[in-house]
Amino acid sequence: MAKLNDPVHITFEDLEDVVYLLKKVADYDLSGYSKSSLKRRVQRLMDMERMDLVDLKNAILNVEGFFGYFIQEITVNVTEMFRDPLFYHELKNVVFPYLQTYPQLRIWSAGCATGEEAYSLSILLQEENLLGRSFIYGTDISQQAVNTAKKGVYTMAKIKSYTENYNRVGLNSKFSDHYTAMYDAAIINNEYRNSVLFSNHNLVSDNVFNEFQLICCRNVLIYFDRELQRRVLNVFYESLSLFGFLCLGTKESLYSQEINANFKVINKSLNIYQKIR
Amino acid sequence: MTKAENIILIGGSAGSYSLIISMLESIPVNISSAVIVVIHRNAKYSTQMEKSLSLKLKRPIVPAEDKVMIENNTIYFAAPGYHLLIEPDRTFSLDISDPVNFSRPSIDVIFESAAEVYTNRCTAFLLSGANNDGAYGIKRVEYFGGTSIIQDPLDAIIDTMPSSAITTSSKAKVLKNKEIINYFCSIK
Ligand SMILES: C[S@@+](CC[C@H](N)C(=O)[O-])C[C@H]1O[C@@H](n2cnc3c(N)ncnc32)[C@H](O)[C@@H]1O
């Protein structure tokens, strides 16, 4: 029974049980996730729902729709537009000049959460007159996040902090040129929303679905263990065209020797790489 | 390269910086512990702190990197903008979920995570600061059999953080700055 005052703390063994159950009943494999943060997320969900371990397992087995809710709550969808302004600055000045040489550009924002990264890329491309020949794919494991991304609507409080980021990228236009404010929220302009396709894609189990000239996967690999990171990096390698670019988060790197050998480091501290073989 | 046998955690916020430097300066050359420092600071500023400290202390100050093994005789700093956690296999793991107590990295998050993995081989220090981060973490360290030490609020430049942890802790030792430094001089 759920105890109201004293939250039940789960152990790593309990977590293994939950992961095993999910694999069996829902065919979702979370065994390659970082255990410490996954455990925190599962604990948070249990506290929120006032569930103990038995309740949780029961819900996974018997409650319809619980599984989608579970994925929504255990994933960390925290994101920003133009997160790490320096990264976007570098993208524009160092990567985009290469991209100019392609007649058509396909770009993948993998683990796009609520869409901010994909829209940032789209705005950046527009600034460099590349948007007309570009198409962006935003994918995430969380259907809820994908739904929010499709809307392209963000609260004014968020827009305010995104504006601070934007102003540090060093672009000519104003951030407010790219959205329309409506009372306490803003909608990203049509031209950007029409340039991105958001869909559900699971980096653990789904494979290559297109060929890309640029892949951004930022702040996703930190949630995976080394083995799963290697799998995902391989999917990216295979999804990139020759001389295409891979961008990881500022605290993520192409540590794996075998994969590393196929890339040139474009910017070490910002983790921008180019596929060279 | 050997895995750290013991872990020493230092959590500090406003008013803790110069004490932390003195603590780190007192650490003997060879220890069979890893030291992890979590200071609240703005993520927008780069990690100059590590570089200048390395020079000053004449030993490497290592940023705690994702999925990297925690080694003996090493001083780690938590990266600004990310929570720091420890995996059961004793590697670091980073997380960018919402701030806890308005802080990321949060002291509560690393204290709880390290305490669970290192149990009685975990010692946590909570120092000066202007919020309540760390109080819950200290309780979790105690729950898992670790040692909890809180800076005497009278010695703290800002006493909110230590005072709040003392109220909720069941067995923390409250130490004067001098005693804290002595502790670091005698780390094994
Ligand atoms: C912290 S967000 C990163 C958002 C954005 N890239 C950024 O850096 O701001 C991590 C995202 O990865 C997604 N994710 C986690 N596991 C995934 C998987 N197996 N496949 C695809 N996306 C996943 C989560 O749902 C979450 O939205």
From TrEMBL, chain A:
SUPFAM superfamilies reported for this sequence: S-adenosyl-L-methionine-dependent methyltransferases (SSF53335)
Where does the CheR-type methyltransferase domain start and stop, copy by copy?
3-276
- A GO BP entry: methylation
Give an example GO molecular function: S-adenosylmethionine-dependent methyltransferase activity
Q: Which InterPro entries match?
A: Bact_Chemotaxis_MeTrfase, CheR_C, CheR_MeTrfase, SAM-dependent_MTases_sf
Q: Which domain of life is it from?
A: Bacteria
Keyword vocabulary terms for this entry: Methyltransferase, Transferase
Kindly list the residue ranges recorded as spanning the membrane.
none
User: What is an example of a Pfam family matching this protein?
Assistant: CheR
What's the name of the protein?
Protein-glutamate O-methyltransferase CheR
> Which organism does this record belong to?
Sphingobacterium alkalisoli
